[in-house]
Each structure stands twice: as C-alpha cells, then as structure tokens.
Amino acid sequence: MAVNEYTAQQAFEVLMNHLRKRDGQLATHIQAVVDAGKDVDETQQVGTRRKRSRSYRRTVPYSYQEALEVALDAFQAYFVEQPLFIDSCAKNMAATEVGNARSFRARWQPAEEHNDEPAIESMGKRKRIEIELRTETQISEPNQEMFELREIDVSQIEKQRDNIAQLKNLVDFEV
Predict the structure, then answer these.
(1) Given Cys at both, which of 78, 122, 127, 134 links 98, Cβ 3.0 to 4.6 Å?
(2) Per-residue pLDDT tens over the stretch 3-15
(3) Distance (Å, whole) CA 35 – CA 67
(4) What distance in Å separates the CA atoms of residue 33 and residue 22, rounded to the nearest whole number?
C-alpha cells in the first residue's frame, strides 16, 4: 500500500486544478511541459531471418507519478532557481560601473578641456534589470516589449523551497 490514500493521478489533477485557479499562465506552461512527454530509445527487429535491428527514439507520455515529479521540478525552477538567478544578477550588476555623459570625452576634445576622472556614482546601487521580449524579428503583443525582473527576498525563496519539500512528501507514492 502506498504511503498516501490517493493515487498519483488524483494528486496531479488536484495540483493542476489549484494551479489553474491561482495562476493560469503558469499552469499552462507546466501542462505543456508534461504534455511534451519524454523521449525513449527503442529497438525493433527487422526481418525474420537475419538478426538485424533498428533503433529509434520516440516520445511517450509521462506516467502520473513522473508528471508530478516534472511539475514539482518546474515549481522548483520557477519559485526558487529563477529568483536566485535574478538575485545573483542584481548583485553582480550593482557592483558594476555605468558610465555617464561626464565620463565621455570625444576624440576631438583636448584632454585639458575635459575632466578625465571616471564616473562611478552608480557603483554599488541596484539597477533595473529588463529582458527584451519583443525583438526586431519577433512578433509579440505590443504591450509585451520589455519584462522587468524584480528581486525577491531570500527568506521568501527559502519559504518556497520548504513548501516544495513539503509538497514532495505529499506526492511520495513508493511502497
């Protein structure tokens, strides 16, 4: 008998229903990942006389247990790993200098007319991090040109990590 009183299919359906109610876009992404299935290598005998075979790969659907594991891995990436990457990027960018017009000297200007000390006033300050969603060759919605990445408090990331660990305990179906 499994540790839990429900099946992997029931757990997956409850998880996805709750996710659709809370965040439909994330639910759509996770469902697409699960629906993509997994690749397996298969071997097939060719002919009856000779011992020849051919190997090929094909995509098979995940079992409900595997689908739960894939969904939890997606949660881990979305709620823990991505915020940690954003935090790391923000810390690295805060330590960098950003030049301004004062530090630029045109080649035709003599050095004595321009103050050559570097502008480091933005060093140590948090900078805005954006990802360009709409490039010149990509068609997207007009209001989706840029996406700003915001930092999340490390304590919230740790809470999400704990929540995912508890969720993994709930979907343990090993005997």
Answers:
(1) 122
(2) 668 888 999 999 9
(3) 9
(4) 18
